[in-house]
From TrEMBL:
Domain of life: Bacteria
Annotated binding of substrate, by residue: H128
Family, per entry: Belongs to the aldo/keto reductase family.
UniProt KW Magnesium keyword: no
Active site residues of this protein: Y70 (proton donor)
Any one GO molecular function term: oxidoreductase activity, acting on the CH-OH group of donors, NAD or NADP as acceptor
Residues of the site described as Lowers pKa of active site Tyr: K95
Sorted UniProt keywords: NADP, Oxidoreductase
Designated name of the protein: Putative aldo/keto reductase
PROSITE patterns: ALDOKETO_REDUCTASE_1 (PS00798)
Chain ranges of the NADP-dependent oxidoreductase domain: 37-280
Amino acid sequence: MFTHPGILGPRDRIEHVMADNTIPSITLNNGVDIPQLGFGTYQIPPRETKGAVLTALEAGYRHIDTAQMYGNEREVGEAVRESGLSRSDVFVTSKLNNNAHDPAVAVDAVARSTDELGLGPIDLYLVHWPLPEVGDFVDTWRALEGQYRSGALRTIGVSNFQQGHLERLLANTEVVPAVNQIEVHPYFQQAPLRAFNRDHGIVTEAWAPIGQGAVLDDPVLAEIAGQVARTVAQVTLRWHIQRGDVIFPKSSSPARAAENSALFDFELSDEQVARIDALDADRRLGPDPDTFNWVPA
């Protein structure tokens, strides 16, 4: 069983059938297994979410990522229930909204997410942003610790936390986050933060794994794609997989969703991985977690 959130090797995989590929899972620090490939629902409108998630589940995805902020938890839950799959076969992640950091409000927010999804205990629940100028995320985390201990949440983690934020949590709370979902792509690789995560038993999840499309015209990636007879998106996602990231490619297109899942019947060579590693430009595309403090009205 794969137990270390570092680089995957062929003996480290728990294999699940997905189309003609095999998907690895990673064992989190509380013993729960998380599929390394998930389907992201960010910016998929609620009216389109149910169909997109059903298509993804039919294509073999078994990990769905949503959030209170996305406004589509209900539709994700409907899709999972109507898929015909056993609840235990689908891993669902959601996230605490930015207006729910007050500990008392956070407890109610977990209950709302649970009701919206309608799937029982949520597999993984994240603090979506640290919001360092809005309030004390340590108190927010303690509220999630209570929900975790009560059984309402199977696993808890964070999203967009920098090393300093994590150091505060580790020094002042009891439950080590199982994951840290952060922006990672070839142009913004976050090597020091990924290393900190790894050293503390925290799995790195990569949002925007293809840089919101920014990497798709990269000549180095295009050359590697030609060498392995794959698309640039597939090469980029495979690079993440071999590094040990959990990834969430998003697409409402059935063909693209299927393409994004075809990652487990080829491998990149060490030289190809090194060439992609060399593309790092410290180019953040999303908000800076140290200054981002947006709270919905």
